[in-house]
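One thing: mind reviewing this one?
=====
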Amino acid sequence: MGKKIKIVELFAGVGGFRIGLEKASDDKTEFKTVWANQFEPSTTRQYASEVYVARFGNKGFSGRSIEAVIEDDFDAIPDHDLLVGGFPCQDYSVASTLKNSHGLIGKKGVLFWSIYTILQRKGEKAPDYFFLENVDRLLKSPASQRGKDFAVMLASLSDLGYAIEWRVVNAAEYGFPQRRRRVFIVGYKKGTKLYEKAKRAVATDWLTKDGVLADAFPVEKELLTHDVKLEGTYADITENFSANKPTLSPFASAGLVVDRKVTTGKVTPRYNGKVATLGDVLIDEKDVPEEFFIAEDKLPMWTYLKGAKKEERKSASGHVYHYAEGAMVFPDALDKPSRTIITGEGGSGASRFKHVIKTPSGRLRRLVPLELERLDMFPDNHTQLEGVPAGKRAFFMGNALVVGAIEKVGKSLSNKR
């Protein structure tokens, strides 16, 4: 193995970043997770932590709130080279800057500020790189002031001395078995080779061929870009960003930020390889537990929820309104990548959004946890653990990322750094 890149994994879930990056290890680079944190505030039993420890051991694992760790045990977070995490999409508004420091006063419980605080407090020992993931809605949040949240993030990370690039990636457009759109955000600290390259680069070249994300996920060379201004304090950005055009975000599907200068544009994916499908991940019908099959008497409700609707409804307050929605493909097509797994995928209740397939015998059934793991490209039965119910395993995969996409970014980072 080559040079070791030590990873700290935040909001670790059941270890998707860890699996993908460690799979990207090669003769040049060994990706090694040295510390991980996972805490789910909405549940008493920490199921994801149990799975994580069962698979990777408890050495270097913290099951406490990351905010609590930062507040009273910061030294427990080891120095590292790469900080990763799929943080929740929240409101990143800032009330004001703190005098005599670079700290921020934001909403409590907004976990992006935990990432920021770690990068800030590590100072000269801050990691050379970070790799963050979120839903693509982040680029246009909140609805009342499109793009403001992302602008606050980019300004704060840039001020810490990082060059930042982002890409919205639909995993299925690069051959993976699930249509899952996520924004990947990668940063390079001032002084690293990648920072210097990004600073000198023509932005369009970086976004289409020279950058880490362009190498991992090729795009067509034609790209129209525009610049975005990140001016003033974070409180100024919170108050004024997109104030004149609150319904339109200026952030497109790709972008580069150096010293607060933002260049962004819409890229077109380019991929000519093999395409994995939902049908590729299925187990034999005889191995599917009976509870996953849809009973005949339950089928009308499934059909109704999956179907097109145009009907009059009444709210709890008595307000009458007209509701309409289009039909879902039912059952799901087996010769294409699957739809996005959602956290509510588990359970036997009828749902518009759960996957339903038709078996060779003609019966309809839901997907089992093993198949959901395969759609996210986790190892088979990665989340199988005594005491962890099937519904919770489905929840994990709805919260997870496509491991293969993470691996591609890791390999590109290894080649480019």
